[in-house]
Design goal:
This protein is mainly α. The chain has 6 helices and 2 strands, in the order H-E-E-H-H-H-H-H. Helix content is about 65%, strand content about 10%. Helix 1 packs antiparallel against helix 2, helix 2 packs antiparallel against helix 4 and helix 4 runs antiparallel to helix 6.
Length: about 170
């Protein structure tokens, strides 16, 4: 018998991959001259130290993971009065609230875990940018990752609204 994945597992997995990417980058980035910001063409517009890059990356990762964990906690234990779902009357019936909470928790884990997983591209591309002269981002792959993130979130939201939360 295959056991279902816990709703929080994708968030945990995305967090771990992002943390590993930051730890790897800590060993690969130079002490100074690390690109911190890029324009749309991939040219760096701001430089800083490895410490600053890692601090900002850690804070950003904690923010995304914290919001995901907070929303996960909210939908599993908090009030559902402010939660907006299709067919609200159907899903907030007492016999379905448990299933609704589980589905919302799965969705929070998947969306925020996927976001963190795709954010692992940030430290990887920062390392890449420090190894080429002049420093540049690999613009094509970065735009592909960004497009995948946006398309994935939009596609998943359409799936949620049209199919997942449709009354059985």
């Amino acid at each position: 018998m295959i056991r279902a994945v816990r709703p929080w597992f994708p968030l945990l997995a995305g967090s771990v991959f992002y943390a590993f990417a930051l730890v790897w980058a800590a060993g690969e980035l130079p002490d100074d001259g690390v690109p911190l910001h890029f324009d749309p063409t991939g040219a760096p517009t701001a430089f800083g130290s490895r410490t600053r890059f890692l601090t900002l990356g850690t804070l950003f990762g904690l923010l995304v993971a914290g919001i995901g964990a907070g929303l996960h906690r909210l939908v599993t234990t908090g009030s559902l009065t402010r939660i907006s779902v299709p067919h609200r009357e159907y899903w907030t019936a007492p016999q379905r609230v448990g299933r609704l909470r589980h589905m919302l928790a799965e969705d929070m884990g998947r969306i925020f875990g996927g976001t963190l997983l795709l954010l692992t591209a940030v430290p990887v591309t920062a390392v890449y940018a420090t190894r080429v002269q002049p420093p540049r981002l690999p613009v094509g792959p970065v735009w592909v990752v960004l497009a995948l993130l946006v398309a994935g979130i939009v596609g998943y939201c359409v799936y949620l609204a049209r199919y997942r939360y449709r009354p059985a």
